[in-house]
Design the sequence.
């Protein structure tokens, strides 16, 4: 599971952090010599668009005017990439633990319990960062829409001038980053269940978990352990306890009496 988290974390932060986009505009003035038919505007991560500028003709025989895009969306983008990078690092560390010190990880379930808490934190962070970046990306698309940028050019307010978009920015990579963000959210939430089963908490809730350091209490006495029950052979009759004082011995006639009641009393009587 950690290998999958490792891979998708890379996809998430790389598709966002490595993005670079561009769009083109055309401003055709009444005086063709003042026109600029290929205004190129480039922007990239972390999307501080208020620092992105371009030069556009005024169509009034003057120098070109410098214009800036609108908005700063670096906070949501950088937050998203940061969560992706830390998820990547933690997944790599967890894989190393599973491969090399698994016994230490399972000792007293402490490793699994810490892993569960960290996994829950990352799942929550993926939820927050993905939602924030989805909103930020929507604003980036709006701010870099060529039709919206054209409204910033003063020359385009004059009816005799013609302004149009030439090339739209490709934001498919950014759309993919948002998709990977929510996929990571699902994967980290799903991984919670697998880590939870290793913590021992499930058995504790069911009442069957006994810590390895504790011993089962011994019975207080044999009487409580089941050995103090009355012996069926040691009842009121005393069990098999022959009373040789009453049943054995020789009588006055010289015979062995009472020990064998149905036998002849003596050898002399048989004679």
Sequence:
């Amino acid at each position: 599971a950690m290998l999958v988290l490792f891979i998708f974390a890379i996809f998430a932060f790389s598709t966002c952090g490595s993005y670079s986009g561009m769009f083109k505009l055309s401003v055709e003035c009444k005086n063709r010599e003042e026109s600029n038919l290929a205004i190129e505007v480039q922007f990239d991560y972390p999307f501080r668009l208020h620092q992105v500028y371009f030069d556009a003709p005024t169509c009034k025989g003057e120098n070109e005017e410098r214009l800036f895009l609108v908005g700063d969306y670096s906070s949501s983008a950088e937050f998203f990439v940061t969560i992706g990078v830390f998820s990547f690092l933690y997944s790599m560390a967890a894989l190393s633990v599973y491969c090399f010190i698994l016994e230490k990880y399972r000792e007293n379930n402490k490793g699994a319990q810490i892993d569960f808490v960290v996994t829950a934190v990352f799942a929550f962070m993926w939820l927050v960062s993905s939602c924030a970046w989805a909103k930020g990306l929507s604003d980036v698309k709006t701010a870099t829409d060529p039709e919206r940028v054209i409204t910033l050019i003063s020359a385009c307010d004059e009816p005799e001038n013609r302004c149009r978009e030439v090339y739209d920015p490709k934001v498919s990579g950014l759309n993919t980053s948002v998709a990977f963000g929510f996929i990571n959210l699902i994967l980290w939430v799903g991984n919670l269940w697998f880590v939870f089963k290793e913590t021992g908490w499930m058995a504790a809730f069911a009442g069957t978990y006994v810590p390895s350091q504790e011993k089962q209490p011994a019975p207080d006495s044999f009487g409580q352990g089941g050995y103090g029950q009355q012996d069926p052979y040691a009842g009121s009759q005393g069990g098999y306890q022959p009373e040789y004082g009453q049943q054995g011995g020789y009588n006055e006639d010289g015979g062995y009496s009472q020990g064998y009641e149905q036998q002849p009393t003596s050898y002399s009587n048989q004679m």
User: Anything to note?
Assistant: Residues 208-216, 218-271 have pLDDT under 50 and may be disordered.
